[in-house]
Amino acid sequence: MSESKGVLQGFKEFLMRGNVIELAVAVVVGAAFTNIVNAVVKGVINPIVGALGSQNLDNYKACLTTCHTDRKTGAFTDGIYILWGSVLSSALTFLITAGVVYFLMILPMNKWKERQAARKPVDNAPLAPTEVELLTEIRDALIAQRTTSAPVPSSTSGTIGTQRTQS
Q: Which of 14, 78, 159, 166 lies at 20 to 30 Å from 90 by C-alpha?
């Protein structure tokens, strides 16, 4: 019984994490935006494209081989053809959806997070020194070490070395 309670407790913790709840909200909102975007494409974009040709983007096709069309419906009866109009419609739907999600959800949320972060008290802990500051300290320490210990001439010729003077 304790093992199943542990599993259920773990599942509850998983569901209560912020990431899972945010993901669920995103899916629901995304589904709602899909309907709005489809309506915009159907009601605004397709009529604009329709000023140049057919309002239904699915009617835009290109034939790669010899294609025969039905005279009554205008549909291809045989041959190889590409439905580039439906690809264009899907691409427009995606771009509009991405734009709506970014400008109406992501951008305001980022600005809100920035404002919340600006309201937090500033940490008074000292900042860690930068690399340049550390290298400057090392250089100064080496210079100070070099000036306090002067090289003493060696009595044996041919040996190279420095000796510290004792005070």
A: 78
